[in-house]
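Work Package 3 committed the consortium to producing structural models of liganded targets before the mid-term review. Because experimental data for this complex are still outstanding, the team generated a predictive model from sequence and the ligand definition alone, so that downstream docking and mutagenesis planning could proceed in parallel. The input record is reproduced below exactly as it was submitted to the modelling pipeline, together with the SMILES string for magnesium ion.
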Amino acid sequence: MSDALTTTAAASVSDGVATGTTDPAGAGRDLDVILDIADLSVAYATGSGDLVAVKDVNLQVRRGEILGIAGESGSGKTTMAATLLRLLKKPGRVSGGTAQFFPGSAPEGVDLLAITGNRLRRLRWSSLSYLPQGSMNSLNPVARIERQFADVILEHAPKRKAELPTLIPRLLQQVGLDPSVARSYPHELSGGMRQRVLMAIAISLEPDLIVADEPTTALDVTVQRVILQTLADLSRDSGVTIILISHDMGVHAQLADRVAVMLDGAVVEVGEVRQVFHQPQHEYTRRLIESIPKLAGAAVGVNAGHPVATGEDDR
Amino acid sequence: MSFPLAGGTSTEPALEPGAPPPEERSSLWERRPWFRYALRCFLLYLASLWGALTIAFFFFRMLPGDPVSTVLQSMQQQYGTTVQASGDLVARYRTEFGLDGSVIEQYLRFMKNLVLHQDFGPSLLSYPTPAQDVIGAALPWTIGLMGITAVLSWVIGVAAGAIAGWRRGRLGAEVTANVAIAFSQMPFYFVALVLVYVFSYLLGVLPNRSAYDSQLTPGWNLEFIGSVLQHGILPAVSIVVIGSLGWLLSTRMLIVPLLGEDFLSYAEAKGLRPSVILRKYALRNCYLPQVTAFGLGLGFIFNGNVLVEQLFSYPGLGSTLVAAIKLQDLNTIMGITSLAIFAVLTANFVLELVLPLLDPRIKGWR
Ligand SMILES: Nc1ncnc2c1ncn2[C@@H]1O[C@H](COP(=O)(O)OP(=O)(O)OP(=O)(O)O)[C@@H](O)[C@H]1O
Ligand SMILES: [Mg+2]
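The resulting structure, written out as tokens with the ligand in place, is given here.
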């Protein structure tokens, strides 16, 4: 065990932050599963046969938690996210499994992998939302930011039309952006601003579940902090469930309640973040933890579910 | 400690919103960069207009042939008399056609008459009617037929191409695309002849000659307008059938690579309707090249479409131009050329002002 982790363990205990199973607020909800992934396999058809990118994954996401998914590049994290969001494109194909989703609008549960057409469309965003990596060109280059809020809000909640002029600035402010950003086009924004816009759009309809794929990768620490803070606030205040994909174990340490570790498409370890960090069961997990860069003067802290400190520059 | 990455004194460049710069004491120029941009475009437009007209003028002066001797010849044939072209007569005609003096003098006079009076001098086609009047008689027919069919071809072709691209890989879309590829290579007159054969000869429901019923006197009455529309159907349909195929194929080619873009997946994840994604996300990103091409093509319709006009005996600039070239009717040729130059450059100028509205990334000002 590295020095950093030993120190962190002591620090966390002294912080007295309750996490995971010992969290009083979390008591009793642990059994409340919002997404039940069973035997999920996804393959890409390639010239030289099938490439199995996700292998027999069994994973239960609990209502209200932040579930981190870790794993090095190519381990199948994005493929799994795309599959759950039903954005998997050819040559990818689900070769087996189910993903029972229990949103507020359908407590009896729907299989995310089987639902189609308008039923799927209506589930989107209001129940199942997506926070992509900001460096992708996820925003429509020829539409103003406000349009890109308005189209999704009007599609799923047409009654809120009158609210839009106040709702959009509020959402932007929530992620530390000036309301004037609403009138901008994507190319006029920096990468960090675009990521924040995506964050604000993702939460605009208060979904049950947000799938966030590398939402902080390639961002400077300030923007990282805003994104993570917003996710933490959202989880704490609105009980939104978050699947947080990141190859950066430091991000999981800061934010996740539980972590699942993926290796070559398989989930090799799942557990409370504290437990995974302190008693990694798998050699690969240990290596991932050891790869966390130690920043000058600060050790990596395991601080599950704990709100992230904000600076005065966060509007 | 609780948040290791939170420490540090990072500057915050990302917080600067894309808002307009703070209000300072600034001139109209600085506050309205669009103004400066529009003015620059306009000056460039005037300069290229002048340049193109000048080149056209000297080009046509360099061509062999002498309009004056052509006039005299045709008068001899017409009146059967042997007009002994006296020096006086020739000189009079040279003056009348603007051919006296040095080329530079002729050029200055041409420019002056063009700018001040839009006057190109007498035509040979129907001497002594001025060339601009000959052109003016043909112009409405050309604009009517070519203009309307250009718009129709674009709208139909772009819409069909968007759908064909969107549904690529499906049977219907692939069949449509392949049929379009095959037919777009087909000569226009083939389609026109098939249509004429079916609708004029076999069914006898549509006229295939002229622009209106010659028994009617042109005027703004229902009967005449109906006749014009009826006569326009066959030429219009043959132009639109072939013209829209080109737009279909190019739009499809623009849409297909867009389908892999992140912002389309994101729109899908948002749960937007497919029709909205197609129109507001995919097609919206194709407007820039398609509107540009349309705008430039719109300029060229002023050359008329000779094939259409000949096939359907339709009055228009194309036939006028061909007749003028045969007769070496310099003034009329110059007039039509000037009109085409004016139309193309004006379309281009308007495009430069409008395109930034279609795609905010190509702001010309700043
Ligand atoms: N369209 C595709 N066609 C074929 N193979 C693919 C395709 N997309 C992904 N793969 C393969 O699937 C595997 C998993 O890729 P995936 O993008 O899910 O990894 P990841 O964990 O998200 O990696 P990263 O951390 O780099 O984002 C990789 O081996 C990749 O090569
Ligand atoms: Mg990925």
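Reviewers should note the following from the model. Chain B touches chain A through 40 residues (CB under 8 Å). These observations will guide the Year 2 experiments.
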